[in-house]
Amino acid sequence: LALKGSNYAGLLERHRIHTKNVEHVVDSLRNERIEVRLVKRREYNEETVRWADAVISAGGDGTMLLAASKVFDKFKPVIGVNTDPERSEGHLCLPVRYTHSFPEALQKLYRGEFRWQWRQRIRLYLEGTGINPIPVDLHEQQLSQEQHSRAHINERFQDQRSDISGPHLLPVRALNEVFIGESLSSRYAMCSVLFRENFKSCKPSFKFSLHRASYYEISVDDGPWEKQKSSGLNVCTGTGSKAWSYNINKIAHQAVEEILKIAKKHGSLNMPLNTELVQKVTNDYNESLLYSPEEPKMFFSIREPIVNRVFSSSQQRGFSSKVCVRSRCWDACMVVDGGTSFEFNDGAIASIMIDTEDALCTVLLEE
Amino acid sequence: LALKGSNYAGLLERHRIHTKNVEHVVDSLRNERIEVRLVKRREYNEETVRWADAVISAGGDGTMLLAASKVFDKFKPVIGVNTDPERSEGHLCLPVRYTHSFPEALQKLYRGEFRWQWRQRIRLYLEGTGINPIPVDLHEQQLSQEQHSRAHINERFQDQRSDISGPHLLPVRALNEVFIGESLSSRYAMCSVLFRENFKSCKPSFKFSLHRASYYEISVDDGPWEKQKSSGLNVCTGTGSKAWSYNINKIAHQAVEEILKIAKKHGSLNMPLNTELVQKVTNDYNESLLYSPEEPKMFFSIREPIVNRVFSSSQQRGFSSKVCVRSRCWDACMVVDGGTSFEFNDGAIASIMIDTEDALCTVLLEE
Q: Is B367 inside any structural domain?
């Protein structure tokens, strides 16, 4: 790692800090005689969730997403502790100071100095020919290249196998967003392995990425179907409006400045175009992209829409209660919270909406 | 296909039209006693290019990119005929009317009623530990899952194998753009095949996509190195400024309207905010993203930059003569014209620039 310019010492240090922070949280809980099961990613499953009265994630936002992904009970609190503040923004976690003084957080919980917060989540129905409702756990795939059984997934679908044509409610709830787009297909290549032996590379993996535009049809709030071609469609919650959706839609100071310059010229405006005005406009615009995690509405945005003779895009983004998408993709998928993936190929139809029964229960401590 | 809602008859018809158009071009050439070799994608190679005085691509823009990808001689003209006008914009091809009256184009060429156009292209140097200068042809990968020899690629590197630490000039020239970003890793999954048997799906492929931000460091025109995190970096030519780059950077009418509304409010502007003004500003802004294919300059844009405590982004886009990128990615690649891919992982350094010797020779017919 050091040869490559990576900071090995830094990685080790971050691991040390994380481990120490986890110990602190566990000790704080046990000191209050709370029974604690400490599980790692691979051991975290629905049985563990059933056993617990509450779930605490210790990591960054990604770990919180994983923790939430196995909780379907709207009365089971999930609390995030950010054990990696140098690296994670911790949007989904308690404020960073509780990482080092977790007993303070516990005291507030005991004294009722908090309120419940329900983060709305998105549910997905899938139908059409050739669909595959078996999700792929992307984190698992990364960790273990050979997986010979996924019994826990298999169970869930025992009763659904007989009828695969009707809409399936998928066994996931998106806390941040659902992203639909062409996945980048990969194929095993014998040739690459042959050549790599010559170059002393030991990586057996092989990834070929081809940016391909996604073709699909979309209907918002049961409106008319519209054909679209883009780099993908993002449908987020209030929680997710701060995440990838924000990065897709936010505008740069540089762009706002150019737009205002052009407007000034065209509109013959007497407008002092100073940095302060540009900054205010930029901030206001970007802030308008965010909304409360508790609002039962979704925000859809089309990423890099392609507009030409064939494809139009009446609205590039907006709020909605329901989004339906019919895939015309060759090799696409729906990715939930960056961690679970479903095939979404030509002919499949997804219906995307929020049901308040799916909300995730978290806490907001009083400050 | 029909069961899935795909338009089989439409696909067949497009193929018929394409075939007819190709015959028309070939016949027109042979009628002038020009010797023609008609090759398909897989047969198109550097020996064929060497044999030819000129290369004509018959297809859409993608076919033109493929044709150009094997031409390294700046005096070998490459001309595109758009045989699929319903589906391809044909930016890189002759105007559509010549598709059905190719003899007219030939006459103009004979009479000198044209000018040469040199489309500048980008070259790439790669260095650092663990790099793999063997490119992967993504179109080939799609067509044939088993490839046992890539002798033509092998040849090119015979002399370079002894020294893999110095900067390698890669055997490609980007006509549209180079895109650098995390590829979406895929792994073979035994489990997916087991379950799919139950669902009558016959696809042996398996793609798991995980949107992961790309980490890298960038230096523009030999300026200071800057750490960045984003959805990827796009560096294009004038030709490519109309392609993916345009879709990354263009702004929607809806966004301009919102920005001007906010500006009007903050600046207490007496500005009539009508659709006409918004449209003018939108069009001007979007047009400023385009420039001549013959200009020897590159346009870089950072896709969805992530700005927080750790990562900054002083400039989201701009013109440059040279861009250097050091990968801090886990599993990334550089994709040239959406068709050729190179690994670009932690420690690799790419230097990206235009050399006018690499220009592609095309023609602009007089109208």
A: no
